[in-house]
Design a protein that fits this description.
Length: about 450
């Protein structure tokens, strides 16, 4: 960076682009053209996208793909996925087709509890604070009624509220720990609004509480915020069949395959270096559907990985077993998702994705997302324990290499024909391109 900028947010969109182009590019005119070529021709639609975030200069496109043939709880779904990584959508679709003839996926929402906390400092007697909390708890909940009224009509709202003493870990630190049911909404804004009101009421009531000394009345609110760790908002996805039913073209010995598959999962259960990559593969599927449906993949990622570490050691999210001749592969993960509010009602492609899924409820979306993650994991483990991960991945990745080298349609035809029977690697593809062009 050559120079700092003052008042960037106050510049017009054109001024922002021109400043970026002139500051960072040898050819500003070309940079402006690249930035603007991704603008939407529909001015109203472009304005909608501009207002999603701040300091917008363009749109950043990711592919929207479809993985069909997902049989979940007896119903077929075509799953929309937004992701930039080669082979992910193909792998999900392949798993979906594989299991559609073996009973399909089973998915169950085990719980839907979400959490928020008011973090505060209290310099006084903890027993006296507990008495105070017990006395004002009805007032605390009543103070949020104007916020929770509509949610309560849908069967949601604040489901519990407790005082937690954390002074053993941090001096003078306490929490109001609240749990919520937000129905089809992810509920972040709703939860945060409730928490901020609880904090205001807590502080006001403390100032008027006769059981406190003057020093004790001075409660310090540190912050009020929802938690993205939702260990009681859990969905289970699973597949199972008789071991012999696993047989297919690349699985000639299903018993050997099943045993090797289970061992691969057990390795991920005890080895964090493997578990991280194992779970990343699960999140390839999870994140792709979350993005397509306008949900917050960063929040889900943070919560899922915390859940994978809940024993004190990072471990596999999925599990597998062979019992009485039955192969079972399953996973339980925390997913706080919504199908109303946020981008779900604003982004046209998000609305389209939800339409493709049959306008699911939040619980149905939890099931679809978990199943897609499990399907992705199955595909990866099947490849790893049979042909290796690179064979399928490089077949999909070859298009990126061909685009990078701006190959012609004739060159593409020759290249793809050549690599039908030859090992694909970046170096091998580049060498073949160079040979063609001699």
């Amino acid at each position: 960076m050559n120079n700092a900028v003052t008042g960037f947010s106050k510049l017009t969109k054109e001024e922002k682009i021109n400043w970026i182009a002139n500051e960072y590019f040898a050819n500003p005119k070309e940079a402006v053209a690249i930035i603007k070529q991704y603008w939407n021709n529909d001015a109203k639609l472009q304005q909608l996208h501009d207002e999603f975030i701040e300091n917008t200069i363009s749109n950043f496109y990711l592919p929207l793909g479809i993985a069909p043939n997902f049989l979940i709880n007896g119903n077929y779904y075509s799953v929309p996925m937004v992701i930039e990584e080669s082979s992910v959508v193909a792998a999900a679709a392949k798993s979906a087709k594989f299991w559609s003839t073996r009973g399909g996926f089973k998915a169950t929402v085990l719980s839907t509890e979400k959490i928020g906390q008011v973090h505060f400092l209290f310099k006084g007697d903890s027993g006296q604070l507990q008495q105070f909390f017990d006395a004002i708890k009805p007032k605390l909940i009543a103070s949020t009624e104007s916020i929770t009224a509509n949610m309560q009509k849908r069967g949601g709202g604040i489901t519990s509220l407790e005082l937690r003493n954390k002074t053993a870990e941090l001096e003078n630190y306490f929490q109001l720990h609240a749990t919520f049911e937000t129905k089809d909404s992810m509920g972040a804004n709703f939860i945060n609004s409730c928490l901020e009101q609880l904090a205001k009421t807590l502080k006001a009531e403390a100032e008027n509480y006769t059981g406190f000394t003057e020093a004790e009345k001075d409660i310090t609110i540190v912050m009020s915020i929802l938690s993205n760790y939702v260990p009681n908002c859990i969905v289970r996805a699973e597949v199972s069949c008789r071991v012999e039913e696993l047989a297919e073209k690349k699985i000639e010995d299903p018993q050997q395959f099943a045993e090797k598959f289970v061992q691969a999962v057990k390795i991920a259960e005890i080895e964090p270096f493997r578990a991280v990559t194992h779970n990343k593969g699960i999140m390839n599927g999870v994140d792709a559907v979350i993005l397509a449906t306008g949900n917050d993949f960063r929040a889900v990622e943070a919560g899922v990985h915390a859940y994978a570490s809940r024993s004190g050691k990072y471990s596999s999210l999925s599990h597998a077993k062979i019992e009485n001749g039955i192969f079972t592969f399953w996973m339980e993960i925390p997913l706080a998702l919504g199908t109303v509010g946020g981008l779900t009602s604003l982004h046209p492609l998000v609305k389209t994705a939800l339409e493709i899924l049959g306008k699911p409820s939040a619980q149905q979306l939890m099931q679809i997302v978990a199943v897609t993650g499990l399907a992705q994991n199955f595909a990866a483990l099947r490849s790893l324990t049979t042909t290796g991960i690179q064979e399928g991945h490089m077949k999909m990745h070859i298009n990126n290499i061909l685009n990078q080298y701006q190959t012609t349609p004739e060159e593409r035809k020759s290249i793809k024909s050549h690599f039908e029977n030859n090992t694909i690697s970046h170096a091998a593809v580049v060498a073949f391109i160079e040979e063609l062009r001699k």
